[in-house]
Design goal:
Radius of gyration: 21 Å
Distance between the termini: 45 Å
Shape: globular
Order of helices and strands: EHEHEHEEEHEEEEEHEHEHHEH
Strand content: 15-25%
Largest sheet: 14 strands, mixed
Structural class: alpha/beta
Helix content: 25-40%
Strand order of the largest sheet: 1-12-11-13-14-10-9-8-2-7-3-6-5-4
Number of helices: 9
Length: 385
């Protein structure tokens, strides 16, 4: 990132980085030994699940490899071919844990119609645009549920490279440039090394991986920015009233950007390519839960740099969305989400809502799509035919 940018990195403190480096080195042999034993045990039990064909999308990197846009691209391709499918993803201990991914998929699949949400003790089902999103605390149980569901022609499992006991009809492993230079967890952010690609039927490397290293047989995919929209656009599937859109053009004002994704540096590069370089950038950890202090810090950054707008990722917008829906619900609006999925009521919720609204009302998000090679799409359609 050029020196002219003011970068605030909230992903980890210097003490946390030192702790991971020190403790990670100390516990690496024991952790990897246990991990490898567990992997071999579950791989020996690998079996297919009866029902609709199952396609897994995953990688070796903890966040940032492009799984979400690739899953969306595959699903869109199948829908265009006349298929009706389901997407299975993880669900945290609380319903709000991975709400960003759930709402992103629901918004993409809704097609303008209001999604139908069903909340159960161990899973969340969202029917949107004829397709189903299932967030389950036990992902394998979610796969079984969707594969056996009537009217489901295929199932795509997000982040499933390490779902060792599942034998899918098609396994897609995504590679990121960090796969070639990163370190294994707990030292770094790699779940596995490049040997994980041996279990995949298709290996898709993100552009930037053009290096003469294994696996030798791989295709390339890229993630492109397709447009910029006000965050208020994300409200449309969930509220009856027509949301007001941000008035000013993002290109005409100074901007502050923020991202809580696996690879925020990639988002920053995209902004530069779109001529939307910010005055300041705040980086948060993947799936970061925004609190009052985070949002106030963003406001301070905006004031300090004389900026008039924020620009963020679609996933970060979906993370703020439940807070805004909480405010609209309090104003009497009919929202399409159960109360359990919007920001829970706490003693600080008024401050959180006010801080979120200040950012939301002048913020935009960049919508990205994955461009996949034709041979990968052909193989996917052949499997789900």
């Amino acid at each position: 990132m050029p020196a002219k940018y003011h970068i605030v990195d909230r992903r980890r403190t210097a003490l946390q980085s030192l702790g991971q480096s020190t403790l990670g080195t100390l516990f690496l042999p024991a952790y990897r030994a246990v991990f490898n034993l567990r992997r071999e045990r579950y791989l020996s039990q690998r079996a297919r699940i009866p029902g609709a064909p199952i396609v897994t999308v995953g990688g070796t990197l903890i966040g940032g490899s492009g799984k979400t846009p690739v899953t969306c691209a595959l699903h869109e391709t199948a829908v265009q071919a006349g298929k009706r499918g389901a997407i299975v993803l993880k669900c945290g201990k609380t319903p709000q844990r991975y709400i960003d991914e759930l709402l992103l998929y629901a918004g993409r699949l809704a097609g303008g119609a209001r999604p139908c949400v069903t909340l159960r003790e161990d899973h969340i089902l969202i029917e949107a645009g004829g397709s189903i999103i299932c967030a389950h605390k036990r992902k394998l149980d979610g796969v079984r549920m969707m594969a056996g569901r009537e009217g489901v022609d295929f199932v795509i499992v997000d982040d499933a490279q390490q779902l060792f006991s599942l034998q899918p009809a098609l396994s897609i492993c995504l590679l990121h440039p960090k796969d070639y230079s990163g370190r294994l967890f707990p030292q770094g952010m790699l779940r596995e090394g490049l040997e994980a690609t041996e279990r995949a039927d298709l290996v898709l490397a993100r552009t930037g991986c053009e290096v003469s290293k294994p696996p030798a047989t791989k295709s390339y995919f890229c993630v492109n920015a397709e447009g910029i929209s006000p965050l208020n656009e994300l409200l449309k599937p969930w509220v009856e009233c027509e949301p007001e859109l941000a008035a000013s053009s993002l290109y005409d004002v100074k901007r502050v950007s923020f991202a809580g994704i696996g690879w925020p540096e990639g988002f920053e590069e995209s902004l530069e390519e779109m001529n939307l370089a910010p005055s300041a950038m705040a980086r948060f950890s993947d799936h970061h839960h925004f609190g009052v202090r985070d949002l106030r810090m963003l406001e301070i950054l905006r004031e300090k740099h004389g900026a008039e707008a924020f620009v963020t990722t679609e996933k970060d917008g979906c993370r703020l969305l439940p807070i805004i829906l909480r405010a609209l619900h309090g104003e009497g609006c009919d929202i399409g989400l159960p109360e359990e999925l919007i920001a829970p009521t706490t003693h600080y919720i008024p401050d959180l809502v006010v801080a979120a609204q200040r950012i939301w009302n002048c913020a935009y998000y960049v919508k990205v799509n994955a461009q996949l090679p034709s041979e990968a799409l052909d193989r996917f359609l052949e499997v789900i035919a």
